[in-house]
Amino acid sequence: MISALMPNFSRLDVAFAHGQGSWLFDAQGRRYLDFAAGIATNSLGHNHPHLVKTISEQAAKVIHVSNLYRVPQAEQLAARFVEACFADSVFFCNSGAEANEGLIKAMRKAQSDAGHPERTRVICFEGAFHGRTLATISATGNPKYLEGFGKPVEGFDHVPFNNLNALRAAITAETAGILVEPLQGEGGIRAADPDFLRGLRAACDEFGLILGFDEVQTGMGRTGKLFAHQWGDVEPDIMSLAKGIGGGFPMAAVLAREHVAKALKPGSHGTTFGGSPLACAVGNAVLDVILADGFLDQMNETASYLRAGLEKLIARHGDVFTELRGQGLLIGLKCAVPNGEAQAQALRQGLLSVAAGENVLRLLPPLVVTRADCDEGLAMLEQTAAALAPQVAK
Question: pTM for the complete prediction?
Fold first, then answer.
């Protein structure tokens, strides 16, 4: 008999009763170090006092009014994002897939408004992940996610990641723009080469295309800057955000330059729940913490400490973990054993992690993780590697 919950998730047999900082506790009181962070979503960890206070106070005032009316919390949050990056305007929604849907629509509409209605196609990259809607699984292009859902949504072309020659060869008179993750998360913690990103910007400028960055997983401080693309000298025309933007509360955003944002006129796009007073109060609270003086500096120091420990782990246990990937606290361990087995063994040791493509184990600690937390995590991974080593020897 089917369960009351639809069976589209393979859930691990553990449930959590409460959390504190980087730790979660089950009903029996066993604690788990959360290096999954809700898949890079719980940016401030669990039970963060500023976040809890903000949610409680705003919920006691007004939760939702719809976008038929002004939402001061949204106006404030949008202005803060505009001040912090390339964007001129912001649209708030609820999930990464929804943000990417809005991004794709904005690309097409902006090209149409500019006199190019034929420009509807978007170039995406192998190994990408852009969401679970019909359009975003088509943008992702992974056959595993497309199987059984009929013909993919038309309008997406896929080329190898980090290959500028393939990218330029794929541009046609129908190309509207390019959508890329600066660092692929689901695809195996694969970083875009700086020269590749510069080449994407140059190609967009040359052919009148719109450059879109998917920073759903890489944004909100995850790589050590507010947005991953800020490590280089390349800025997009439009960008999607989600996950860490709400610290665990469902929220997302599309940030765009004026020439793209102005295409979304009244009636062209919308959302019922997006940009609510509660969601945007939470978003402001998360920014309060991440943009506070010294916060990202401290996070980068802790990330460097953790990564140094992981390098030593690989040196000792190269038969289990073979490569360190990623940036900041978006970390991948390439595995010599199936990453699902590594994830399961880490869970037995009390460490939560997330599997990714290319047989990679993702480590996504909250941005508030401490050195002491990292030491415990490294000890758990040491035990994980020791438990898996005999399997490798076979």
Answer: 0.96
